[in-house]
Amino acid sequence: MTHSQHLLTGIELLQNPRTNKGTAFSMEEREKYGLTGLLPDVVETIDDQVQRALMQLGHKHSDIDRFVYLAGLADTNETLFFRLIMSDPVRFLPIVYDPTIGEACLKFSHIMRRTRGVYLSIDTKGKVDEALSHWPDTDVRFICVTNGGRILGLGDIGANGMGIPIGKLQLYTAAAGVPPQHLLPMFLDAGTNNEEVLNDPLYVGLRRRRPDTAELYAFVDEFVEAVQKRYPDCCLHFEDWTGSDAVHLLARYRDKVCCYNDDIQGTAGIALAGLINALKIKGGSLKDERIFFVGAGSAGIGLANLMVSEMVNEGLSEDEARSRISMFDEHGLLEQSRTDLFDFQKPYAHEHAPSRDLVASLKSTRPTTLIGVSTVGRLFTQEVVETMADVNARPVIFALSNPTEHAECTAEEAYKWSKGSAIYAAGVQFPPVHLGARTYLPGQANNLYVFPAVAMAVYATRATRVPDELFIEAARAVADQVPQDLLDQGCLFPPQADILATSIETAARVSGKVFDLGLARIDRPGDLKQLIEAHVYKAEYQSVS
């Protein structure tokens, strides 16, 4: 506990989620800190409290009800919250984050019980530093910040998107052990263009339409500058901004401050990990792949750019690598005659006849790997999957959009329509698929394998920047931790039950890359895994004294 927390006594000690232990306060602590009479007479262990929480969760009838319960637990007893969800990550991570987080964000203004984090309105422009000063913790190491512009596959939902930074930072701790006291969720409220949200009488955000780009970026500039001044060791995690803003803001700051964008770099990292393992199954090298992206926004471009970087590592020139990547968006194939492309899309617009027909485009480009980041559910029809199987003995098909209803195809559809030849992964978890005598285990290309581990490496090394090389190393480390028996069943990612151990190993690998690149602000230790383990948060009550 910090010095300021030592000063808390009595009811204040119980009402602070970071210091509250509830019935686990010892009799000596109760006497010393004015708690006598404020608690039942019993003294329990944290594991006793976990059992009670499990019993209470058992009475909930839906995952959104369980989400609300767990949010309330986090607001009252942070240690118990993390002890609970880290005890069974397979069960609880899908509740505190994807896929339940999608429904929670849509209902955020209605289910909110207590505010968490910082809300910075564009109306505070010129006073951002003063607003940040109201946050009580001074050693903030990570700020996960969104403007709610493109939440999951849900689009612009304004302040309702605050559920994402809250959930993402909880995954930092639950999946990789980053101490929660250094984490700050934040919403930069510049309005919303969603009329349904604006007309909701319970909406908790700013009731105005979004500003133009110049006004928004001036606001973000002030925010970034204030963070550098107030929290010099802080890394900014940009999350769920609109596609063009996501790309442009990352380019604006990545060489100046410690920052990254999970939708661009984290999604790319987990997709690369999946592709590395897909190539172990079917054979071949990444530089020989022909990759077709459906969706050319920030996620698609981020994936493409990281794939290009790894192909260059394998010996191709940048031009050669880009030539092996095709992209398709709502207006059709990216090709050189199109005049509606963003600057970051143009490197992937090749010489090709215009086409708005996905199947025809697949037949003409003959890709080996099909990656969906379109947010359009069931876009990969039977004809699409059969086309991929017709031109490949083992087609790689990644349907990465989420939540579940936005997945481009289900695991069952991919395996059935390809007659079992597809190597498949999705952005959400699908159940095992039984086809003939075989059982397939579809993997979830979940960013939680990547960004918490990268964050832990940044935290432990006090890295000054977060370049793409860290995400490439994370991808390799994640891929290396999938045992052969899972690969044989088509599973491309490690078991989520072992997520903390997986993340520690990945973070150790990534921290090595931080040192190799000269980005660390500490001396390189002899044992990198020991460095990471020394920084891992443990969900255990600390003595008050």
Based on secondary structure, the structural category is alpha/beta
Count of separate structural domains: 3
Order of neighbouring strands in the sheet with most strands? 8-7-6-9-10-11-14
Average of per-residue pLDDT values = 95
CATH topology-level fold name of the largest domain: Rossmann fold
Tell me, briefly, the overall form: globular
Distance between the termini: 9 Å
Question: How many helices?
Answer: 25
- What is the quaternary state of this protein? single chain
Largest sheet: 7 strands, mixed
Query: Could you estimate the helical fraction of the residues in percent?
Result: 40-55%
Name the CATH homologous superfamily of the largest domain: NAD(P)-binding Rossmann-like Domain
Parts with pLDDT < 50 across at least 5 consecutive residues: 1-5
**CATH class value of the largest domain:** Alpha Beta
Beta fraction of the residues? 5-15%
Identify the CATH architecture of the largest domain.
3-Layer(aba) Sandwich
Radius of gyration (CA) equals 24 Å
How many strand units? 14
